[in-house]
Amino acid sequence: MKSTCTFLALLLAWAINGKAQSNMNFLVNFEDSAAIDQHYYTDSLLDSAGIWQIGTPRKVIFNSAFSGTHATLTLTDSLVPGGIKASFIITLPGVYLDIQTGGYLTFRHKYDLDSAYGVAYAEFSVDSGVHWHSVRPVDERHDCEFYTTFLDGQQFYPPTWWDDLPRHMNSDSNYCLSGRRSNWVSDTIGFAPSWFAVKTDQWTSFMLRFTIKTDSAAAPSEGWLIDDIGFSYYSIFCGGAINEINSSHLHISPNPASSAFQIALTDQAPGDYTMTLTDLMGREMMQQHFTGAEVMVRSTGLAPGSYLVRVVNEKTGDSFSKRVVID
């Protein structure tokens, strides 16, 4: 498999060499109008009733933004009625990922939906919104083992929902959230590196559409509250000196963590390892060497948010990666 990855990397050298020089990183925290104008969009076709609003939450469960004073939510001070469907779009202009580069779209959210008649879900489009497809829950396969799909005229690896996994399925075959999460949840939609570029046409926008839908029989609910939508690239090495191994061998607990978390490797011989912690902008926050198969990492001093943990066997070069959330 590694030699195949290397061969395909050579075939796609034009894509790797031709991508943008700087990583496209952004954060929409609904305080910066420039970021909102560039990445957030809704209109009367997506939301005819004006359900999605940007402002200060003034409800019982939705009583504040995660950071700052503003967020996007379904009505800032009223309950969401039954019989509505409302969406907004996050645009990722110029997303052109390859076999060495993936990306994360992270966000904080709460939701309050009628468990029988209300759902919330995300869809993606690789052709500037012409066609839409459900973002599915992630599985346990390693990045280099994901299989690409030919869809809407492009070869790419579909994004996957990583954390608060939607398991319901609505009539449109979308994976959905339902019920209530009254505390802030940190969530991620991952764009994994794959054997082919994620999008073979870099001139069409990669879009994510967030939708809430209630049946006419649904009881009024607070709906969906979302804040701090961010996107950043990350890099891995496939077919190179570091061999990425299935992340199911790497366990982090507790996760989310506050002052400390334990890293444990399963089905791996004890050895000398290096643990590196980076933020989602790719900045190294911590590095720690350990011997054995587990280590305790103190996270005091780290800002709340999502981080990438990578553990590398110093002898074999085998690498294990997983996301950790710091509260």
CATH architecture of the largest domain: Sandwich
Mean pLDDT: 78
Strand content: 35-45%
What is the helical fraction, as a range of percent?
A: under 10%
What's the shape?
globular
Stretches with pLDDT under 50, minimum 5 residues: 1-24, 140-147, 237-246
Write down how many β-strands occur, each being a DSSP E stretch of 2 or more residues. Answer: 25
Domain module count: 2
Task: Tell me the Rg in angstroms.
Answer: 20 Å
Q: What is the number of helices?
A: 3
CATH class of the largest domain: Mainly Beta
User: What would you call the structural class?
Assistant: mainly beta
CATH fold group of the largest domain = Jelly Rolls
List keywords for this structure.
globular, 5-stranded antiparallel β-sheet, 3 helices, Immunoglobulin-like, 8-stranded mixed β-sheet, 327 residues, disordered N terminus, mainly beta, single chain, Jelly Rolls, 25 strands
Give the structure's gist in a few sentences.
The protein has three helices and 25 strands. It has helices spanning 2-11, 13-18, 33-39, and strands at 26-28, 40-41, 52-55, 71-74, 85-92, 101-112, 118-125, 133-134, 136-137, 149-151, 154-156, 160-161, 168-169, 175-176, 180-191, 206-214, 223-235, 243-244, 250-253, 260-265, 271-279, 284-292, 294-298, 305-313, 318-326.
